[in-house]
Amino acid sequence: MAFKNEYLAKVYDKVCARNPGETEFLQAVEEVLESLEPVVEKDKSYETNGIIDRIVEPERFIQFRVSWVDDNGNVQVNRGFRCQFNSAIGPYKGGLRLHPSVCASVIKFLGFEQIFKNSLTGLPMGGGKGGSDFDPKGKSDGEVMRFCQSFMTELSKHIGADTDVPAGDIGTGAREIGYMFGQYKRLRNEFTGVLTGKGLSYGGSLARTEATGYGVCYFTEEMMKCMKNESFEGKTVVISGSGNVAIYATQKATELGGKVVALSDSNGYVYDKNGINLDVVKQIKEVERGRIKEYCDRVEGAEYHEGCSGIWTIPCDIALPCATQNELDGDAAATLIKNGVIAVAEGANMPSTPDAIEKFLEAGVMFGPAKAANAGGVATSGLEMSQNSERLSWTFEEVDAKLKDIMVNIFHNSYNASKDYDHEGNLVVGANIAGFLKVADAMKWQGVSY
Ligand code: NDP
Description:
By secondary structure, the protein is of the alpha/beta class. Helices cover 48% and strands 15% of the residues. The protein is globular.
């Protein structure tokens, strides 16, 4: 990409030189800077205040050794990370990913995206992300517990309820958050809202588990209603993944009148022309921690196909990629378009490649980018922080209503920003600009050195 604006070109060159080989991070920075071109052109103060130079550099990046002992008595060593990217509008906030693919580039890309996403929610949260290359898959509960405790022993030195509040992400669910919270409390002798995604018995919020999946659907419903007077009613929906986000997106899409016909995991996908039976999926994934393939042993007429990318060949009206980054490429986008897709909204972070996004936008497909469409998870984490501060618990209905309002507002703020900057309907540009403006304003007010 060649930036027309010289300031942005200079900053991007420096990011490339400073972060060689960090492809995911560079991809995320390039997309955001590209969207900010009209903003930087219009107002030179972003350049004179060095806002872009600063926003692309994490305030702090922590990497540490995590050693633990497996069930056979062998010492294992993993690498832990926490990227505290930007605290201009609130304490750092963002999940912890446990997956073998975790590296500095992945954590930085996620932390960078989180700055704008958190700003879009309208809540006072800065951007951060963390995790480890530890793979919880196939590990015993005892091994997961020992890893989580060792991970938190170091992480606890850097986080706190008013400093940095991590949450779940891929591989980090209620079990892992529980072990980490227990260790933090043991080490610090304090009971504070230092993590979100906690269990309900010790400070968690109702509706947090459902929030990202529900939020994607609330966003998609509003986008379809306002942009093309459409809705989920009677639509065929394809959702990738079968983890937390995919499961609750399936539930809400179905409640809103859609028929979800496919789900996947990293090995393959299932197609059920009668509509996915979510009780079966929940039993396999949430209770038994099994593979999506097992769905076909339990539901008559369902088909299993090896290879996860094939899921995008299934004709659908609405596609919700809810698995992982770069899972939907240009070819997959072309196939979806050929098959008549009308709306795509990203439940996962950066699931569509730049080529895929370009194709959707060119074809006039309504496209909800991750930082807007999947912000419901972190928004509800923000609501969990509020409840912890008040030492109160809100009802499911209260939290869900607030979540819905937030998602509707995110759509309108992104749409309005796209209009204000001459890209009406391009929500990639709109979300990046709307998220950026608030953070940049706070950075200007706070001065250069803080
Ligand atoms: P989970 O670990 O619960 O689930 C991830 C799912 O994606 C698993 O079913 C996994 O299968 C599957 N998967 C991984 N790689 C692929 C692939 N290449 N193709 C198809 N399926 C694949 O994670 P979450 O549901 O929590 O997170 C999913 C995405 O949503 C991530 O990008 C995350 O960052 C994002 N997100 C999550 C939020 C949350 O609140 N949980 C909030 C905002 C964003 P397998 O078991 O084979 O690995």
